[in-house]
C-alpha cells in the first residue's frame, strides 16, 4: 500500500492556493502532484508557487493523468457536481468543497455515480478533523454537560464586492451556502440527529439578490438549534452547546488560527461571572492538513471518510428546507 495519496487540484481557486494546498503539502498521507487551470500560465504560476510538479492547461488533462489518485475540487459552487462526476468517472476519489451542490437532487445524483465508479466522494468540512471539534464530540458523549438541548451559533463577515463569487446568485453565493452550511453541519454533528422541521428568515441584498442575513431555527428530536449568518456584518464566529448540566463554547469554531492555540470553554453553570468555566487549549493545528490526511488515510486503508455523501446530502436537505421556509414564511418539514 502506498504511504501517500497523490492529489490533483481542479482550478487555482483562492481557497486552494491560500489555505488547502499549502496545508495538504504538509500532510503525512497527502501529496499534491498536479494542478489545472483553464489558463496554462495560471496553472504553471500556481504550481511553481506551491511546489507542485505538474501543471495542466485544462481540467480534462488533469483527470486523464493516470498517476493521480484523488481530486480536490474547489471550483465555484455551481461547478461542484459536474466536475465531481467527471472526476469520479475518471476513477479518481473526490474531496469537494462545501456546499457539495446547489440542491438536494444534485447531491443525490452522486450516489449512483459513486456506486458505479467505486470511488470515495466526500464534502470538505474541515472542522470534522479539527481537534477542538473531536473533543466536543467526546465531551458530549461523556455527558459532561448533561443532555444537549440547544445549539446557538453565529458566523459573519463583511463583503459587498459584486465581483466576488460569494455575492453572485448564479454561482450559489450568499450567506447560507457559504457559511450557514457550517452552522447547520455543526448542529447536526453535535446532536448526532437530523432536524424534523425548520423555520427561517432571509434578507437579500437589493442589488446582488444574495442572502446577506439569514437566521434559522432547527427543530431536532431532542432539542433545538438556532443560528444567524451574514455576509454584511462585522466579522465574528462563535458556537455554544447548552445542556441540562453545563455549556460548551468554541471560541473560534471555523477559522482556527495558525498563529496561536485554539480554546474550548466548558462551563458548569455555577457562576454567571465565569467562575465555573474550565478552559481547554489545543496546540496549533492546521485543520486543512488534518482534513487531507483523514480523507487520504481512509482511501489508503479503505475505511469511511469523515464526511461521506450521505452526510452531505442531509446537510443540503436542511439548506433546501431553510430556503423553502424563508420563501413560504412557514415551518418547512424535513423529508
Would you kindly provide a written description of the structure presented here, covering whatever features stand out?
- There is one protein chain.
- With about 325 residues, the protein is of the alpha/beta class.
- The protein has 2 domains: about 5-125 and about 290-305, Rossmann fold; about 130-285 and about 315-335, 2-Layer Sandwich (Dihydrodipicolinate Reductase, domain 2).
- The protein is built from 9 helices and 15 strands.
- The strands form 2 sheets. It has a 9-stranded mixed sheet with strand order 14-13-12-11-7-10-9-8-15.
- Helix 4 (about 80-90) links the parallel strand 4 and strand 5 (about 95).
- The termini are far apart.
- About 45% of the residues are buried.
Strand-helix topology:
Layout: E1 5-10, H1 14-24, E2 30-36, H2 40-50, E3 54-56, H3 59-63, E4 70-73, H4 80-89, E5 93-97, H5 104-117, E6 121-124, H6 131-141, E7 148-158, H7 175-191, E8 197-204, E9 211-220, E10 223-230, E11 232-243, E12 247-250, E13 262-267, E14 277-282, H8 287-301, H9 309-328, E15 332-333
Parallel strand pairs: 1-2, 1-4, 2-3, 4-5, 5-6, 7-10
Antiparallel strand pairs: 7-11, 8-9, 8-15, 9-10, 11-12, 12-13, 13-14
Keywords:
15 strands; nine-stranded mixed β-sheet; Dihydrodipicolinate Reductase, domain 2; alpha/beta; six-stranded parallel β-sheet; 2 domains; 335 residues; 29% strand; Rossmann fold
Brief overview:
The chain has helices at residues 14-24, 40-50, 59-63, 80-89, 104-117, 131-141, 175-191, 287-301, 309-328, and strands spanning 5-10, 30-36, 54-56, 70-73, 93-97, 121-124, 148-158, 197-204, 211-220, 223-230, 232-243, 247-250, 262-267, 277-282, 332-333. The mean pLDDT is 96. It folds into 2 domains: 5-126 and 289-303, NAD(P)-binding Rossmann-like Domain (Rossmann fold, 3-Layer(aba) Sandwich), CATH 3.40.50.720; 131-284 and 317-333, Dihydrodipicolinate Reductase, domain 2 (2-Layer Sandwich), CATH 3.30.360.10.
Amino acid at each position: 500500500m502506498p504511504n501517500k495519496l497523490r492529489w490533483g487540484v481542479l482550478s487555482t481557486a483562492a481557497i486552494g492556493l491560500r489555505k488547502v494546498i499549502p496545508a495538504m503539502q504538509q500532510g503525512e498521507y497527502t501529496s499534491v502532484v498536479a494542478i489545472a487551470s483553464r489558463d496554462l500560465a495560471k496553472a504553471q504560476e500556481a504550481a511553481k508557487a506551491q511546489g507542485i510538479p505538474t501543471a495542466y492547461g485544462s481540467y480534462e488533462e488533469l483527470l486523464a493523468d493516470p498517476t493521480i489518485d484523488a481530486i480536490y475540487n474547489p471550483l465555484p459552487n455551481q461547478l461542484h457536481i459536474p466536475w465531481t462526476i467527471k472526476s469520479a468517472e475518471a476513477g479518481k476519489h473526490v474531496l469537494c468543497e462545501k456546499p457539495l451542490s446547489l440542491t438536494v437532487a444534485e447531491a443525490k445524483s452522486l450516489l449512483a455515480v459513486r456506486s458505479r465508479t467505486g470511488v470515495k466522494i466526500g464534502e470538505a468540512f474541515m472542522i470534522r478533523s479539527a481537534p477542538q471539534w473531536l473533543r466536543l464530540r467526546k465531551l458530549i458523549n461523556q455527558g459532561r454537560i448533561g443532555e444537549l438541548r440547544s445549539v446557538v451559533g453565529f458566523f459573519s463577515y463583511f463583503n459587498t464586492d459584486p465581483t466576488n463569487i460569494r455575492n453572485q446568485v448564479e454561482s450559489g453565493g450568499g450567506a447560507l451556502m457559504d457559511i450557514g452550511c457550517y452552522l447547520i453541519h455543526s448542529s447536526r454533528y453535535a446532536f448526532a440527529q437530523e432536524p424534523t422541521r425548520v423555520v427561517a428568515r432571509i434578507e437579500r441584498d437589493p442589488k446582488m439578490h444574495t442572502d446577506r442575513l439569514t437566521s434559522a431555527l432547527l427543530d431536532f428530536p431532542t432539542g433545538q438549534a438556532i443560528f444567524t449568518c451574514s455576509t454584511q456584518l462585522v466579522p465574528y464566529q462563535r458556537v455554544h452547546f447548552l445542556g441540562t448540566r453545563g455549556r460548551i463554547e468554541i471560541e473560534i469554531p471555523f477559522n482556527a488560527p495558525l498563529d496561536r492555540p485554539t480554546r474550548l470553554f466548558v462551563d458548569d453553570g455555577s457562576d454567571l461571572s465565569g467562575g465555573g468555566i474550565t478552559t481547554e487549549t489545543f496546540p496549533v493545528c492546521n485543520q486543512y492538513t488534518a482534513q487531507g490526511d483523514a480523507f487520504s488515510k481512509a482511501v489508503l486503508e479503505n475505511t469511511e471518510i469523515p464526511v461521506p455523501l450521505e452526510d452531505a446530502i442531509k446537510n443540503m436537505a436542511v439548506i433546501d428546507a431553510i430556503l423553502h421556509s424563508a420563501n413560504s414564511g412557514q415551518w418547512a418539514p424535513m423529508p
